[in-house]
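User: Hello, beginner here. Can you help me understand these amino acid letters and fold codes? It all follows right here:
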Amino acid sequence: MPKKALNPKQSLKIPQAILLTSKFLSNVSPKLMTKFAAKLFTSPIKHKIPKRELQMDAQSVQTKFKVPSIQKEINVYQYGKSDKKILLVHGWSGRGTQLFKIADALCKKGYETISFDAPAHGKSPGNATMMLDFIASILALEKKFGPFEAAIGHSLGGMSVANAISTGLQVKSAVLIGSGDIVQDILNDFVAKLKIDPIYSSKLCTYFESRLHDKMDDYSAYRAAQKIEIPVLVIHDTDDPEVSVKAGKNIYKNLKNGKLLITNGLGHRKILGDEAVITTTLEFIENNN
């Protein structure tokens, strides 16, 4: 999609061919449609690295690291050099360099950042992945490169950071930017974008639960938030077309030690480069270290 077709208030569009296939399969076979939707839901799009991220890409020490618990390889970025390390986690179809402006600001403050291309993202191999792989990668990176002073996650990366903290990641503070929240809401939104019967969001949930042997809602960010004791800054934009601002507000509401920053007009991705957002993020981390 051409860059000029996007603005902070526009959501990414589903290609017409996929919409037509979805309509056909939903009329022919609900079972096939569910499997097709599950495949789409777990298949990120690998975008070419944009020019604005090339400096971080070039100046990072990059290594391949196999995550033992899932036996999947990820590409890791070590940016800057310091004993004080911050973990950065990108969102769905993102890259380890996507939070480059935040990384630059952290390096100037004397931190080193560790980020990664999640399985099937960026330079990491594979075609399919789920949030569980993000969480497993975070926990494995802590053992390999930690300890981390803080963790910053965007979108699905925010959900993954929250879940990782609730299951053992040791950090002094965390920042969740444009984070998703309730898994069923994410499935509902996905099915709506495919323009198929809303019943498929329930079918998808059942499909994944039967394979994971877990309740999908157990991975909702608000549930993780209830278990988190450390200070957490939640940042969300009112004009986010990908993840409703109600997600950020609900996560904040369930935190024991939370702070909420609501922005306007930045959407889902522009928010990562906003100077006020970056300043607030750095101040929050430094005040809680």
